[in-house]
Amino acid sequence: MSGADAYICGKFRKTIPSVKTIMTPIVSVEKLTKTYGNGFEALKGVDLAIEQGEILALLGPNGAGKTTLISIVCGIVNPSSGKVLVGGHDVVKDFRATRSLIGLVPQELTTDMFETVWNTVSFSRGVYGYKPNPALIEKVLKDLSLWSKKDNMLRELSGGMKRRVMIAKALSHEPKVLFLDEPTAGVDVNLRREMWQVVRDLRNTGVTVILTTHYIEEAEEIADRVGVINGGKLLLLEEKTALMKKLGRKQLRLELTEPLKAVPTSLAVYDLTLAADGLSLLHEYRDGEGQDTIASLLAGLAAENIHFRDLSTRQSSLEDIFVELVGEKA
User: Fold this and answer.
1) Using CA atoms, how far apart are residues 225 and 237, in angstroms rounded to an integer?
2) Cα–Cα–Cα angle for 5, 193, 219, nearest 5°?
3) Distance between CA 322 and CA 228 in Å, rounded?
4) Is residue 72 within 8 Å of residue 84, measured between CB atoms?
5) Residue 318: phi, psi to the nearest 5?
6) Please, what is the average pLDDT of the chain?
7) Could you confirm whether the keyword rRNA processing appears in this record (predicted)?
8) CA–CA distance from 313 to each of 81, 140, 144, 255 (Å)?
9) Beta bridge partners of 29
10) Strand pairing partners for 229?
11) In this structure, which CATH number among 3.90.660, 3.30.70, 1.20.1440, 3.30.110 belongs to the domain 248-329?
12) Are 326 and 60 in contact (CB under 8 A)?
């Protein structure tokens, strides 16, 4: 039973092994470049392998190359050089085959505002040459909480509901790969979390989901792997938990009992940061590096007769890592 069949028969029922057991990438990008007519290099030799059934979050500032990359994989923009395969098919030479495997939810809400939800989603399936399948369309709308709105015109819906319709359109032809370009932009927090669950459920059927996002919490919450793009280059591609462990930092904060005018030279080795009011000291360290150093630091503070009333630690977030990478590589 394929992932698509599972979607028709049951609500996002898992039918494939875990991501790590699948070796052949569903999307393969090799030495991909894109230079526009004005000389702007949007992509500079990007290599990327995306496995079936995973959620990949692509992070990067505006103009980093995220949308250009998606547009090339989806066959909307032609590359300057390099190769892209989707399901083993070349996106340039086998456009029809690759496009039938892909669903795309663009950042812009582009659809007929005077058409009903049902007709809009049903028409999208027909565009790909598939026969009508009312049962599938009903299932998609119900799973996206759109069934009660099926007879409403698009102009009557909220921004969040319109974005759900865009996802329904992209799922209407049962794609194996789904691209979501800023999927929760303009969506309130509650709807955003509901849509995260929709994405997880899709992944569980074997659908590969690639999303671009400005919400770092989105990548932290649902992604299996994280890619960071800046200046047309893929700076890193890493499993999320491994990335947090490898690049994440911890911060020790010491609240002092009395203000300190300056950090004593005897403590300079710890690279401490003194707050402007002199009442707190900050020390950053990486996982596995901290225990002996912190014990030594506390002994050094005692030797300098510096006392603290409280201490706390904070684990760096994916946002901290992102800012650090982009700042260094921009």
Assistant:
1) 7
2) 85
3) 7
4) yes
5) -60, -30
6) 83
7) no
8) 47, 45, 40, 12
9) 48, 84
10) 234
11) 3.30.70
12) yes
Other CB atoms closer than 10 Å to residue 130's CB: what's the count?
Answer: 14
Looking at residue 298, its amino acid is: L
How far is residue 30's CA from residue 43's CA, in Å, rounded to a whole number?
12
Residue 57: count other Cβ atoms within 10 Å of its Cβ: 25
Nearest in space to 47 (alpha carbons), one of 65, 28, 66: 28
Options 3.40.50.880, 3.30.300.10, 2.30.30.240, 3.40.50.300; CATH for 3-244 is: 3.40.50.300
Rg (CA), the chain: 24
CB burial of 177-194 (b: ≥16 within 10 Å; e: otherwise) equals bbbbbbbbbebeeebbeb
Distances (CA, A) of 316 to 116, 179, 248, 323: 46, 28, 5, 11
Those residues whose C-beta lies under 8 Å from the C-beta of residue 224, and which sit 6 or more positions away, are 19, 54, 55, 56, 203, 239, 240
| Per-residue confidence (pLDDT) for residue 16, from 0 to 100 | 43
Listed by start position, the domains of the chain span 3-244, 248-329
